[in-house]
């Protein structure tokens, strides 16, 4: 399902939270809404869901208008045909896994082939053998998979995810990222995923929509955003950036430690060294800016290092 937003705006008590927003999310794609806390991503997700009403604009699911301020159209959440996966899983503690997954089908009266549909959804998340357990008898990752099974069992055209992995520990979070992304691709859903975690966004998304203060900064593939950030905020928020001044930056990996053509050299003091497993991340002080560079070996703080910045890798705003 393709999602089209036209001039969507939203304010709370006179404060604008979403500035006029135009966005087209392709059918079958995995889009992440990314940005710092309070930038408006959850509000946007809730407007797609019908849980929050925009002040202005229009929202289309394919050709179907689900919201129009001028036409006074506002389709309620239960008729938008979306699946939801929330941060806190929101499972019913007194229901078995089977009943949790069946809940949406029963509530909407779609009970034909219920057992088969629930079994298929549980099989998709590899929880066939857990149907009779209760949520408290499951690990965090298994609970998250039940939440996902519950979203897909109603066969939605799109699934909205609100920070679904943030309650999981770091290792589980990483494996669930891959699992979720693979499942969504396999099942062919359009996915809209909210997170403030840039690694999560980079690793899962076909496209990332980066917001700051309710303004869409850039909507593009992770690689494109990293290599061609549209704004200084995007450059700062995605990946590491070494700044020459407030308007010019480059990515740390373009730094060379031996002379290269068409580059400016800097002799800088090492002011920090962090061991990150595969490499050391050195911090170098260039006037008021702190740069980073990956190094196979640690260097003592206070030592100087000459680095070369290639001119054609500079990005200006
Ligand atoms: P986080 O990552 O912290 O969840 P977010 O980007 O999802 O942040 P939103 O939850 O969309 O941000 O909130 C955007 C702004 O709107 C915040 O300043 C928030 O306080 C405000 N806001 C959200 N919902 C309401 C509401 N119902 N009433 C008043 N203000 C609200």
SSE layout and pairing:
Elements: E1 3-12, E2 15-25, E3 30-34, H1 41-49, E4 56-61, E5 64-68, E6 73-74, E7 82-85, H2 97-107, H3 114-124, H4 140-152, E8 158-162, H5 170-187, E9 190-195, H6 198-204, E10 207-212, E11 215-220, H7 222-227, H8 232-237, E12 242-245, E13 248-250, E14 263-275, E15 280-286, E16 289-295, E17 304-310, E18 315-316
Parallel strand pairs: 3-9, 3-10, 7-8, 8-9
Antiparallel strand pairs: 1-2, 1-4, 4-5, 5-6, 10-11, 12-13, 13-18, 14-15, 14-17, 15-16
Helix pairs in contact: 2-3, 2-4, 3-4
This protein binds adenosine-5'-triphosphate.
Helix content: 25-40%
Query: Helix-strand pattern, N to C?
Result: EEEHEEEEHHHEHEHEEHHEEEEEEE
Largest sheet: 6 strands, mixed
The separation of the N and C termini measures 35 Å
The tally of strands reads 18
Q: Name the shape in a single word.
A: globular
Question: Rounded to an integer, what's the Rg over CA atoms?
Answer: 23 Å
Weakly predicted, low-confidence segments: none
If strands are numbered along the chain, what order do they take across the biggest sheet?
7-8-9-3-10-11
Mean pLDDT: 94
Which ligands are bound? Answer: adenosine-5'-triphosphate
Our estimate of the beta-strand percent is: 25-35%
Instruction: Decide which structural class fits the backbone.
Output: alpha+beta
Discrete helix count: 8
Structural write-up:
The protein is of the alpha+beta class and about 325 residues long. Helices cover about 25% and strands about 35% of the residues. It has 8 helices and 18 strands. The strands form 4 sheets. It has a 6-stranded mixed β-sheet, with helices on both faces. A 5-stranded antiparallel β-sheet has the order 2-1-4-5-6, with helices on one face. It has a 4-stranded antiparallel β-sheet with strand order 16-15-14-17, with no helix packed on it. Helix 2 runs parallel beside helix 4. The site of adenosine-5'-triphosphate has 11 residues, from helix 1.
């Amino acid at each position: 399902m393709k999602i089209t937003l036209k001039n969507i705006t939203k304010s709370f008590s006179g404060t604008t939270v979403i500035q006029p927003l135009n966005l087209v999310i392709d059918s079958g794609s995995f889009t992440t809404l990314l940005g710092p806390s309070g930038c408006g991503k959850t509000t946007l997700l809730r407007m797609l869901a019908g849980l929050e009403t925009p002040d202005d604009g229009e929202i289309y699911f394919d050709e179907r208008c689900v919201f129009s301020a001028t036409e006074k159209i506002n389709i309620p959440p239960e008729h938008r045909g979306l699946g939801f996966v929330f941060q806190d899983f929101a499972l019913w503690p007194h229901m078995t896994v089977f009943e949790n997954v069946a809940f949406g089908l029963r509530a909407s009266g779609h009970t034909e082939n219920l057992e088969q549909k629930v079994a298929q959804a549980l099989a998709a998340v590899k929880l066939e053998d857990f149907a009779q357990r209760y949520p408290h008898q499951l690990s965090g990752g298994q609970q998250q998979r039940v939440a996902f099974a519950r979203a897909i069992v109603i066969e939605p055209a799109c699934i909205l995810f609100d920070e679904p992995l943030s309650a999981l520990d770091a290792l589980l979070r990483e494996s669930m990222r891959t699992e979720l992304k693979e499942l969504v691709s396999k099942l062919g859903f359009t996915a809209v995923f909210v997170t403030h975690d840039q690694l999560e966004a980079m690793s899962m998304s076909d496209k990332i929509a980066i917001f700051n203060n309710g303004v869409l900064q850039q909507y593009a593939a992770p690689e494109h955003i990293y290599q061609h950030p549209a704004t200084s905020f995007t450059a700062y928020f995605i990946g590491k950036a070494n700044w020459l001044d407030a308007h010019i930056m480059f990515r740390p990996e373009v730094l060379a430690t031996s002379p290269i053509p068409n580059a400016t050299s800097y002799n800088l003091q090492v002011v920090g060294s962090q061991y990150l497993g595969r490499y050391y991340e050195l911090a170098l002080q260039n006037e008021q800016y702190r740069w980073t560079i990956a190094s196979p070996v640690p260097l003592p703080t206070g030592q100087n290092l000459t680095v070369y910045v290639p001119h054609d890798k500079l990005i200006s705003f």
